[in-house]
Write the structure tokens for this entry.
Amino acid sequence: MSVHGLIAVNRFGYGAKPGELAKAISNPQGFLKQQLKQPEFNRVLPSASELMQKLYQQRQQAKMLESKKQESQKQQTQNKESATSPSNNNQTKKSPKVQQQAYRDFCQDSFKAAVKSDNSLSWRLLDFFSNHFSVTAQGPVMTALAPTLEREAIAPNLFGSFADMLDAVVHHPAMLVYLNNQQSFGVNSKIGKRKGKGLNENLAREILELHTLGVDGPYNQTDVIALAKGISGWSVSNKSKHSGRNGFFYRDAGHEPGSQQLVGKRFTQKGEAQGRAMLKHLALHPSTAKFVSYKLAKHFISDEPEQELVNALVARWQQTQGNLKQVVEALIEHPLAWQSERAKFITPREHLIFAHRVTEAPLPKTRNLIGLLNQLGQRPFKAGSPAGYGDTEGEWLSDKVMIDRITWSRMLAAKVNKLDVKQLIEQVWGEQLSQRSYLSITRAESRVDAITLLLMSPETLRR
């Protein structure tokens, strides 16, 4: 039994579905490289543009109903017998809640796809970059839009250049709305002068601090302002003002005129091209290579990855101008990524996906899934910060969370209590399960206890 086969399916993936471990054993690195394919979603679900259109219609309908309600109340005052009609009440009850439905559908779709996928490494990578470019589902607009960022901007660029991914993310309505860039105008722009509006630095600051150079990167407040000016006028179309143009909308009248100096380079382009050139400069900067490479190694291997491993990723990044497929292949090829020590503690979401993959238990209903992840501290798209959820053991290993995980594992085990435990061990761990874990699982008093112990074993919780 190849230890590397086991590492391939667990450290790099979400755990072994039936028959998957056998496929990984003969050529673990090749097994992983074949998985570097763009994740596929349910294409029936709406796009960000469609959702914005629906939200606009929802607001219009709400206004209409409110108008009718006020008219009805006026009539009631004039004539008590002309009370609010049942049809109006029914209309109110039937008002669509586009944002909640979309949020639930997206959460369930990505969870289901990760559980069922033959390319779980690609879904791990999608989760990583989705958290790297974290947006929070708060309020009606962001509740609908937040999950679309990873589907429309991140996934299509997952194995291309980081520069293209960054460009797509910063152009996406979810990021522009989340960090208020649609309200950012150059003080010397036409809109800035006419309406007295100015820059909003939120998006520019997070691009520099969280998405590219890192908090310790070579930039200062002057660079934040320069980038904010470069992307001023990058906005989101509003159906009420720009018919049929939902999505990204460039307002030239809101763009700060003139050249900008950012991290040692002057940008003389005009209009939207200036911001795009600035983003590309940041994406290709050596500090970005170091920052993102370190986060990748930390995510997959250890909270404190070896510098030699990080240096290999940085070198590949610089050789390929940030080609993410090449960088991930450098990670797969490095010997330090295949050490037998399980150094990384898995997150609640990773744990749930692992459990459903290996046991093939029925997927939870959408509300239950979201509620469970909320209870375990990792509700989808609810990190509450542009920094995203934490990625260290200290973030996820606490007495309360462990008790909750045990309780959930036991509930899941009860649903799959017909499984043959020894066959399950063979499927998931082959001959590599420790003697201590093997004995505790196979000597459990019941099959439910045995499966619970497997799902909470050290081999499961650390990859």
User: Anything to note?
Assistant: Residues 3-32+343-460 form one domain. The chain has a mean pLDDT of 93. The two ends are 17 Å apart (CA to CA).
